[in-house]
């Protein structure tokens, strides 16, 4: 076991080198503190309202109103861009010089702003209106900035959804000497966009709270034994981040675990260099690989604590322990090109290569399949799921991307009677997991109440026999077809000579109406004609020596030997015929048998 533990320790260390622990929140891909969120009607915050709910934040797009328009009598006296929301103090022009034109010439007159009381009162009233506008619109502008940040964040998450996740954090630990400034109590959240309002909603329906244990492991002063108790407490009690009373007590415990000089503070102390923790909720975007090291640590802990734990045999190869016994080489029979096997039940069509993958898995306990997109890997996994379920196994499927799991689920077998997709439960989303769990339970409940086990067992036995017979028939038919097909490419043997099929076909094609052959069957198509050319000519020339009547007579069947007359019967018949001829006085030749003819017939 020590060698295997070393393998996992190597993987853990390699991951930490490739993905170092982020201890400064500003180095995350994106972050936003709740303290920066203004209090306006368009924004609702669970932290501001002090409620414990799945919903954390609502941000409706604020609509900025224009600045109140000043009266016409003062609009020309106002300096600068009075419409600009970022200009706080608005000044007026103290005096203006007017030029009056007359016959005597141009006369300049200086007019003071304060010369007209109505103008002064109008400016004062407008300034009050504008200040009210500033007090309302400046927070709304900040709210619009937050909305725009969330809009960009939504686009980034959508583009990189498989590699990033949005997290809500609180309990910000600051330790200036170590360069640490990061929340430690975390919870994954979702960012939902409603374009009809438009509005962004952040909710924490995904998973339970967790501690940022990777950060604690970078601090040498942390008491790891007490930290384990705190981790267990967080896992069991599921703290709400908006429940500031409970989280404050937790933060106080945590900072004392970090270091004996740790402090729980309301505001950060500028001159203090020790560790501090403060309730300072914030959102941030992080890479998804942060739980990899923790996962490996749990594997190592389980291997150490369970001496009877059985690990797959392929681990021996990883640590250099090779099996010297000869392994069976798995090869499919030549007929099995469609992935049919008597011992393996599949729910989807398969080929010989996919069948070999399943047999390797059954034989060795592990198999590595590599191939470019579109080569049937997902189809093969879906087929594996059906096969493993038929053997009563539980199956866990993992992937780098959630999209790949969704595609795989759609490939799993489903029809009107059997729905294996309903047994697939996602472990990534608590909401979808609940829906899929309910669907799976409902499917199992329906099947369990509608199935007669005895009848099903009988049906299984019957189908097993039928399937076996069908496979045997399939083998025979396929072999017959292959044999017939092979004749098209097999060389012909004629007159002790080998002839290519293409050459024979050309000869027959060119010999139509020229080399026609006699009708009839032959006992051996590989031998030549038993007649020479002269004998064949003589045979055909004999057609002129035989009359049509003789040819018809010769074409008739010969009588059976038992039906032929004996010599005595023939003599008796001949005598009767001669007597009849004499009686009728018709001259006819008299039939007599000579001594030699008698001997020949006998």
Overview of this protein structure:
- The protein is built from 19 helices and 15 strands.
- Helix 1 (2-18) packs antiparallel against helix 8 (292-305), helix 6 packs antiparallel against helix 7 and helix 11 crosses helix 12 (402-411).
- Helices cover 44% and strands 13% of the residues.
- The protein has 602 residues and is α+β, with helices and mostly antiparallel strands.
- It has helices spanning 2-18, 46-49, 72-75, 117-159, 213-216, 224-237, 244-258, 292-305, 314-318, 352-364, 377-390, 402-411, 430-450, 453-487, 501-510, 533-541, 548-555, 567-583, 595-601; strands spanning 30-33, 43-45, 55-60, 95-102, 105-112, 164-175, 180-188, 190-194, 199-203, 210-211, 263-264, 276-278, 282-287, 492-494, 497-499.
- Strands 1, 6, 7, 10, 11, 12 and 13 form a seven-stranded mixed beta sheet that branches.
- The protein has five domains: 2-61 and 162-299, no CATH class; 72-141, no CATH class; 327-451, no CATH class; 494-555, no CATH class; 561-601, no CATH class.
- The chain is elongated and about 180 Å long.
- The N and C termini lie far apart (105 Å).
Report the sheet with the most strands, covering strand number, pairing sense and barrel closure. 7 strands, mixed
Instruction: Kindly provide the radius of gyration, computed on alpha-carbon positions and rounded to a whole number of angstroms.
Output: 50 Å
Could you tell me the number of beta strands? 15
- Number of folding domains? 5
Number of helices: 19
- Beta-strand portion reads 5-15%
Class by alpha and beta content: alpha+beta
What share of the residues lie within helices? 40-55%
Overall pLDDT confidence? 83
Shape: elongated
Task: Extract low-pLDDT stretches.
Answer: none
What distance separates the N and C termini? 105 Å
